[in-house]
Design a protein that fits this description.
262 residues, alpha+beta, Lipocalin, 2 domains, eight-stranded antiparallel barrel, globular, VDE_dom, oxidoreductase
Length: 262
């Protein structure tokens, strides 16, 4: 019993959780075994303790804690209390993020253009798009449905490098808007949904904006340039800068992930 009480105290003391008004009875009734496992696992427990100092608006801090200590036990705990039984909902950032979806998107994009392996050479969102060694491989699962496996490295709080993998499913929005794609995945026990808009593409690059959600009122946005190689040609880069400007984005502010030690 002491282990559950300790973890309840830790979880309900998190600023981000207090803002979500967790249902403690729900957590005890449905997620006791996951709470016990989290308490007995140093990484899972450290993730909770780490987030105490993050507040409700420091998204970078929260996700640094997540990425640094995430493991299967942590994922199962979050899946139980957030996804499966909705004992709490991830609250929106303060101030909340509003997605600014570009209106000019590609009208001739074909899903088959995704097939193969890509690396992210430019990224807008410092939290989600800038991991080093990002390699994403797309395959066609069956007609109309594609799958993606993304490998990337994160630098944990303790300075170690951890290798992460994410699995996603992708479908086209509809036949009349081929440049809009829907991505779905489960990450850190949470259901992640995002809308991607293809702004430009060629045989060796894809430039896309995305708006994602973790809960009904928690949104985030970003943009990436996929490439078949680590560098873009000057002609491609010049073209993408114009496309970005037209979409209200500044390519000069994008991060450049490293692939030196992959």
């Amino acid at each position: 019993m002491a282990d559950k009480l300790f973890l309840l105290l830790v979880v309900t003391s998190l600023p981000v959780v207090r803002a979500a008004i967790p249902n403690v009875i729900c957590m005890i009734e449905h997620c006791s075994s996951q709470m016990k496992d989290c308490y007995e696992d140093s990484d899972c427990k450290n993730a909770m303790v780490c987030m105490i100092g993050c507040g409700t608006s420091n998204q970078t801090c929260v996700f640094n804690c997540f990425f640094s200590y995430e493991n299967e036990i942590f994922d199962n705990f979050m899946k139980c209390i957030v996804t499966d039984y909705k004992c709490m909902e991830i609250p929106p950032l303060n101030p909340p993020v509003k997605c600014h979806r570009p209106a000019n998107i590609q009208t001739t994009f074909e899903m088959e253009s995704l097939i193969g392996s890509w690396i992210i050479v430019l990224g807008k969102n410092q939290i989600y798009d800038c991991f080093n060694c990002q390699n994403t491989t797309y395959i066609q699962a069956h007609e109309g449905l594609f799958s993606a496996v993304e490998h990337y490295d994160i630098k944990a709080i303790d300075g170690t490098i951890k290798h992460r993998t994410t699995f996603e499913s992708i479908v086209q929005w509809n036949a009349t808007t081929p440049g809009i794609l829907k991505y779905n995945s489960r990450q850190m026990g949470l259901e992640i949904h995002s809308e991607w808009r293809v702004l430009d593409y060629g045989t060796d690059y894809i430039f896309a904006y995305y708006c994602g959600s973790i809960s009904s009122n928690y949104f985030y946005e970003g943009a990436v340039v996929y490439s078949k190689s680590v560098t873009l040609s000057n002609d491609t880069l010049s073209k993408l800068k114009k496309v970005a400007t037209d979409a209200g984005l500044d390519l000069n502010t994008f991060c450049k992930p490293s692939y030196n030690s992959c």
